[in-house]
């Protein structure tokens, strides 16, 4: 499964509907401090099923909804959709096997939990996690392998980690 | 299972041992098991010798050396079992020019088989991108995508 | 003593509130006591609002914003009670160009009353130095001082 | 008390006798990854009385002695001397008050602890700590204020710290 497109709306600093298209090779995201680059990483972790607000730098899961700015009020909903090419390289549940594209989506409304959607059908968190696990991106805590996403400031952890923490890296790759 | 762990460990170790001297332009490194008789519980130690230096406690390494060492391990795991994509957020921050160059080489290699998404402030790292997205906050507090460059 | 803590807190808060908008080119910030009735045990909270943004949990700030915020606090304490020298090891690593410029301005100001020793990889930061020492490891594993420039 | 000079010999990667002179204003130390810049900071923490090997990135205090390289064997002794101008700005013990310069020195030999020396006289760790406390650099844990030295990678801590940890900063400045 290859990344095809990321659609963000109302997630953290992304008030506007924003689309990022992915191709083969290296995609670089650049911009000044605080402009929203790491928020893009957070949105991908979130749509793939991240359950811990702290892992997204927040105190509560609602912290991911656009909180407003000097000029704009807060929004009520955050939505992220991550679309994959289904190139046959992954273990995909039977009902998706014939599709060219698979789109996972998550929305959260204030005072209501998250909804999970796969190809426009309401799904459960477990369905999202199974799908991600099959793609080869997920199998660790947070529903994805520790070595597929290296968050800002986290690279040093592998070196300072205790011997048994480092073991997890091998277990996830097994 | 014990056997799967042992095979995975051996394979990752092989990649780690091969990648380290490419990132460090020399030197040696290896992973060892703290308890080889207990494959289900053993921890994993890192033994690292930058070129021309002696093997020492990995905690004594410099900030940049620790980052390169961690990248060697991450990329080694990646080579054994590539995930379809890899997101790296400012991993090049502590690196000097020479290390940025070697890091970029290895990233380009990984990008032949996986999609790599990099966040960076470094101009040299930007140069290896096939696609470049700029984000700004022209309007305070509101992120805006300002341009895509197929480079 | 309670009174000394209260006076120190007020003074540092005044400096912090003044420094923040200089480092962030706007915005507001302040320190508050978690328990104003218990001056001997109270903790200290940081409330930060970058220019044009809303006050939010300080943990949501970006890597560069967190560094600038921490520097505002460190320099605020420093202004209240300057230590004769200050050692800063690669504190500018997460900063973009604009923030490096503002950081350097504040450092130059501090250097009028204290000695500041900076370790950096950044060329713009090097430009503000009065004295520049280069270290190399031409012979592997052995540090050598290679030059002093009075700039 | 102003910094005047730092002399390093046998400390970590500093096999050669190395002297760094300090003047007013900004001193910048530059060089490639792993060349020894942070080791200079470690040497200053060490000579001012740092007791924890972990705070110097080591496992034991002897880790600060030059361990050798590919071409050179290990050394047996590490020595660091930090010389101050006594400009009258600090609270200095009476016996030093008339001196223009005050030099604190620490040496460690393998299988022997550290020796502390002030102006060529054998002293105790407590003498060094009193002197440093008087200069306005020392008063926190590790014998020096937390805000006078910001180690590599540590700047984020003030923001991620708990409210009661941040209190220490104010206490040290009081
Ligand atoms: N729910 C939210 N609503 C509005 N803004 C938010 C929300 N959550 C986070 N932000 C803002 O997003 C900004 C951080 O963005 P991000 O971490 O993506 O920056 P960055 O581009 O990675 O910067 P750096 O280069 O410094 O790492 C912060 O200023 C934060 O206040
Ligand atoms: N006792 C010792 N003997 C010899 N070398 C040592 C000793 N202790 C540490 N080193 C070496 O010193 C090097 C680290 O130096 P240092 O941390 O000062 O680098 P740096 O210049 O700060 O680099 P960076 O820019 O990456 O932060 C490591 O390679 C380490 O192996
Ligand atoms: Mg970031
Ligand atoms: Mg360093």
Structure report:
The complex is a heterotetramer, with two copies of chain A (174 residues) and two copies of chain B (151 residues). With 174 residues, chain A is an alpha+beta fold. Chain A has four helices and eight strands. In chain A, a hairpin with an 8-residue loop joins strand 1 (2-9) and strand 2. The two termini of chain A are 19 Å apart. Chain B is built from four helices and six strands. Chain B has helices at 2-23, 63-80, 97-110, 123-127, and strands at 28-33, 44-49, 85-89, 115-119, 131-136, 144-150. Chain B starts with a helix and ends with a strand. In chain B, helix 1 packs across helix 2 and helix 2 (63-80) packs parallel to helix 3 (97-110). Classes of the chains: A alpha+beta (174), B alpha+beta (151). Chains in contact: A-B, A-C, B-C, B-D, C-D. Strand 3 of chain A pairs parallel with strand 4 (115-119) of chain B. Residues 37-38, 152 of chain A line the site of one magnesium ion.
Average pLDDT of chain B, rounded to a whole number, is 95
Most extensive protein-chain contact, per-chain counts? A-B, 69 and 68 residues
Task: Report the count of strand segments of chain A.
Answer: 8
- pLDDT < 50 stretches of chain A: none
Described by its quaternary structure, the protein is heterotetramer
Major pleated sheet of chain B: 2 strands, antiparallel
The dominant shape of chain A is: globular
Based on CA atoms alone, the radius of gyration of chain B comes out at: 18 Å
Task: Let me know the number of strands of chain B.
Answer: 6
How many alpha or pi helices of chain B?
A: 4
The strand line-up of the biggest sheet of chain A is: 2-1-4-5-6-7
Order of helices and strands of chain B: HEEHEHEHEE
Mean pLDDT of chain A, to the nearest integer, reads 93
Q: What sequence of helices (H) and strands (E) makes up the elements of chain A?
A: EEEHEEEEHEHH
Task: Report, as a whole number of angstroms, the end-to-end distance of chain A.
Answer: 19 Å
- Give a short account of the largest sheet of chain A: 6 strands, antiparallel
């Amino acid at each position: 499964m290859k990344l095809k497109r990321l659609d963000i709306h109302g997630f953290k600093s992304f008030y506007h509907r924003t689309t990022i298209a992915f191709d083969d090779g290296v995609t670089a995201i650049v911009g000044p401090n605080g402009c929203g680059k790491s928020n893009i990483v957070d949105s991908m972790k979130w749509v793939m099923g991240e359950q811990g607000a702290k892992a997204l730098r927040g105190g509560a899961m609602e912290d991911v909804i656009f909180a407003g700015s000097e000029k704009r009020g807060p929004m009520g909903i955050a939505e992220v959709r991550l679309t994959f090419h289904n190139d046959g390289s992954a273990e995909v549940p039977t009902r998706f096997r014939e599709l060219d594209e698979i789109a996972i989506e998550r929305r959260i409304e204030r005072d209501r939990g998250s909804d999970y959607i796969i190809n426009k059908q309401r799904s459960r968190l477990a369905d999202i996690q199974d799908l991600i696990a099959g793609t080869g991106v997920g199998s660790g805590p947070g529903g994805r392998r520790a070595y597929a996403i290296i968050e800002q400031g986290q690279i040093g952890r592998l070196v300072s980690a205790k011997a048994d923490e480092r073991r997890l890296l091998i277990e996830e790759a097994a | 299972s014990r056997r799967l762990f042992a095979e995975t460990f051996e394979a990752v170790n092989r990649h780690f041992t091969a990648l380290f001297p490419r990132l460090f332009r020399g030197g040696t490194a290896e992973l060892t098991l703290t308890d080889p008789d207990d494959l289900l519980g053993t921890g994993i130690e890192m033994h690292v010798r930058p070129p021309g230096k002696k093997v020492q406690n990995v905690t004594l390494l410099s900030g940049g050396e620790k980052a390169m060492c961690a990248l060697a391990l991450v990329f080694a795991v990646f080579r054994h079992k590539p995930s379809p994509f890899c997101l790296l957020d400012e991993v090049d921050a502590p690196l000097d020019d020479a290390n940025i160059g070697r890091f970029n080489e290895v990233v380009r290699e990984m990008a032949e088989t996986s999609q790599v998404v990099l966040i960076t402030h470094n101009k040299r790292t930007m140069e290896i991108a096939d696609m470049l997205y700029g984000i700004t906050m022209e309007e305070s507090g509101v992120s805006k995508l300002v341009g895509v460059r197929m480079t």
